[in-house]
Amino acid sequence: MAPLSLFSLFLSFLLLLSPAFSTNSEGNALYALRRRLSDPTNVLQSWDPTLVNPCTWFHVTCDSNNHVIRLDLGNSNISGTLGPEIGQLQHLQYLELYKNDIRGKIPKELGNLKDLVGMDLYGNRFEGEIPKSFAKLKSLRFLRLNNNNLTGSIPRELTSLSNLKVFDVSNNDLCGTIPVDGPFAMFSVPSFENNKRLNGPELKGLVPYDFGC
Fold this sequence. Notes:
Strand content: 15-25%
Pfam families: LRR_14, LRRNT_2
CATH class: Alpha Beta
Keywords: Leucine-rich repeat, Repeat, Signal
Order of helices and strands: HEEEEEEEEEEEEE
Number of strands: 13
Number of domains: 1
Distance between the termini: 69 Å
Organism: Durio zibethinus
Number of helices: 1
CATH architecture: Alpha-Beta Horseshoe
Protein name: Leucine-rich repeat protein 1-like
């Protein structure tokens, strides 16, 4: 067989295996998440890393190509932290982790999830700043971070998210001013309330956007 034919055969073999490699990496990322979490009610009991892919795991939804597109762990009585490996779920569209006891910083690697449409992290104990990397989530429509312990200012980079329809950061400890550009022009006061150091809409040219931080 000619060398070119052998090379073509090898490429075909790699393409055949690539979905398995992809879904296995997603399974590895989810299992790494599981190891970070305390799960007293065993909602993650079905997360078996020996399976070919995570598509049969409870609370995980896949598309027709066996890529993980939803993670539904809202109100699941879990606690712990998130790690950078969650950014490996490259096809994820919905991340639902609301009303748990997850603490620590929100990983900046979530900004790698370019297909993300909805992210609900509200009702946890997240701290630190809202990652500026969220500005890369151009498909994002719903971002709810309310009822956490987040600090710092609202990143001005988020004003570039033209598809953003719902944004809620109420009941945190944010500071500075509220953006007024892009989608932020339509967000109402309740989306920002109960942040004692958040000083109202940004006054461009008069005070810095992080005034009071």
